[in-house]
Hints:
Pfam family, one: PAS_6
Helix content: 40-55%
Largest sheet: 5 strands, antiparallel
Protein name: HTH domain-containing protein
CATH topology of the largest domain: Beta-Lactamase
InterPro entries: DauR-like (IPR039446), DauR-like_HTH (IPR039445), YheO (IPR013559)
Strand content: 15-25%
CATH class of the largest domain: Alpha Beta
Strand order of the largest sheet: 2-1-5-4-3
CATH architecture of the largest domain: 2-Layer Sandwich
Amino acid sequence: MTAEDETLLREAEKIAVAVGRTLGGLCEVVLHDLRDPAHAIRAIENNLSGRSVGEPATELGLARIQDPEYHEVVQNYPGRLPDGRPVKSTSIGIKNSDGVYVAALCLNLDTGPLAAVAAGIDRLIRTDEQERPLAETLRARTVDGLRAAAEEFAADHARSPRELGSTERGELVRALESQGYLQVKHSVQTLARILGVSRATVYNDLRHER
Length: 210
């Protein structure tokens, strides 16, 4: 037991206390003194596991004591509290200048309440496509929207609206009608100008697609 080791433990304890108090009651933070595995727990914040200061090291702590090459950080692994609640855990090993593990800082996040919130949000945002098979666009239908939709369609075909062929023009007219744009006042006249054709051509395309 050296002065360096004790300094490392003392500094790590400050971190454990600060992190625990920052994360609140959902996250248990435990500092293990690996120099004394039989009484390893030196500090514990937000005690979720029911352990006490002076209790022995866990299996992971013993593995670090036995093997200095053991993983320095074991992150986000699943575990269970004594009452069965699920936790997500992270263990950080702390070595001295000789490369010997002297401490481990462990965080155990109680994921139960968060999982319940996540499940609630999932239910809230879930949609049922079977109840509404038609695609629904929740934006106002305007002449400007029609123009934007036509330009977007043409861009998807690597053309300008005036370069669309009769087949592509028919697809565009069908799409605009299904989206409600051809119900807008002056929509056919506007579309004819965008496409560089007559209104009669647009009406013919529309009748053909129907």
